[in-house]
Amino acid sequence: MTSSPKTLRIAMNGVTGRMGYRQHLLRSILPLRDGGLTLVDGTRVAVEPILVGRNADKIADMAAQHGIQEWTTDVASVIADPTVDVYFDAQVTSRRVEALSSAIKAGKHVYTEKPTAETLTEAIELARMAQNAGVVAGVVHDKLYLPGLVKLRRLVDEGFFGRILSMRGEFGYWVFEGDGQPAQRPSWNYRAEDGGGITVDMFCHWNYVMEGLLGSVKAVTARAVTHVPTRWDEAGQSYPATADDAAYGIFEIEGGIIAQINSSWAVRVYRDELVEFQIDGTHGSAVAGLRRCVAQQRAHTPKPVWNPDLPVTEKFRDQWLEVPANADLDNGFKLQWEEFLRDVLAGRPHRFGLLSAARGVQLAELGLTSSAQGRRLEVPEIVL
Ligand SMILES: NC(=O)c1ccc[n+]([C@@H]2O[C@H](COP(=O)([O-])OP(=O)(O)OC[C@H]3O[C@@H](n4cnc5c(N)ncnc54)[C@H](O)[C@@H]3O)[C@@H](O)[C@H]2O)c1
């Protein structure tokens, strides 16, 4: 093993948040700091986080707790620091454009949570800036790295489905209102004026999931609603929920595939996982969650007959076969971080960049317009 040729210094903003702390710092960057990033040729590169946040006490405590040497509340200084290689952003969405723009202008490589912006115009502008600056830019597309979706993608690649007809997705769980029991998501998620809303949050995921599994989305018809109009915030104060907490979408994908995805924070779970996708094709079907994937071939498909007068005798779930992982699939966020950092070191584009992110923002924006206007909207191609 050769000694480290380089240290990658990563400024991490928004690490006191749910995603920034759990998935990005704890599950991804700290293991990389401790173990190093291994390149294809076996070389180890050291990874060094610098914590960035608004609250000095919180950031200092977190740095001390995890043995991190550097932290700051001054975003501008860290972005101006020539020894910093990557700027990472997991702040609330509304703060992202400004921070990413300054980082790109300073020539930093950027890695960011989704959505990259609150409007399509800004998302495209960011993608253009990164392209012109020649920096490596990546956006979190974590769902594609999940074991369940990796298995589903393998079935697509191997032609398991024959001609793919449709996909249905079910995402959601009950998010407590916050009066009796505290809510398990931050209150800004339920305020449109603070960048909240399930359409904005989830349609950018669904866009890359559909692109990654099936192809590009050509049209959308959606209905976004606020089922629960009053919620209670982190301080126990009631507030009007101005953002949508459920979105029901129909997506038309190239090749005539129809996808239908329900996203809801006002639904109770009677499923195996919090998100599940089912793909049906002429030769087989499969259902994938975050981790598991089961499949049923054409030749193994039973022939149910509709008869409401008789009790169900078949155990439908038992008729599916488990798709094996055949590999040790690590945490999805960490896997994508590793891929992104290897791209930074190699100076090549990351496969999920800011243009892909802009398409996600576009789908969310069109979804909301479709809902407001009550009509189907085609998805224009974005050209940088
Ligand atoms: N990839 C995913 O699966 C996934 C899941 C959830 C959220 N996200 C995205 O991650 C980002 C952060 O979401 P989260 O759930 O961690 O949110 P959070 O509220 O838990 O964290 C937000 C972070 O931003 C900081 N912040 C900066 N300015 C702020 C302001 N004015 N008000 C409030 N906080 C401010 C907070 O200190 C905190 O560090 C969002 O953009 C969200 O869309 C991604």
From TrEMBL:
Entry annotated with the keyword RNA-binding: no
InterPro entries in the cross-refs: Gfo/Idh/MocA-like_OxRdtase_N (IPR000683), Gfo/Idh/MocA_oxidrdct_glycsds (IPR050463), GFO_IDH_MocA-like_dom (IPR055170), NAD(P)-bd_dom_sf (IPR036291)
UniProt enzyme class: oxidoreductase
Domain GFO/IDH/MocA-like oxidoreductase: 151-286
Enzyme Commission number(s) of this protein: 1.1.1.292
Keywords: Oxidoreductase
Signal peptide span: none
Gene Ontology molecular function: any one: 1,5-anhydro-D-fructose reductase (1,5-anhydro-D-mannitol-forming) activity
Domain (Gfo/Idh/MocA-like oxidoreductase N-terminal) ranges: 51-140
Name of the featured protein: Oxidoreductase, Gfo/Idh/MocA family protein
Source organism per UniProt: Mycolicibacterium aurum
Source species taxonomy: Bacteria, Bacillati, Actinomycetota, Actinomycetes, Mycobacteriales
Gene name linked to the record: afr_1
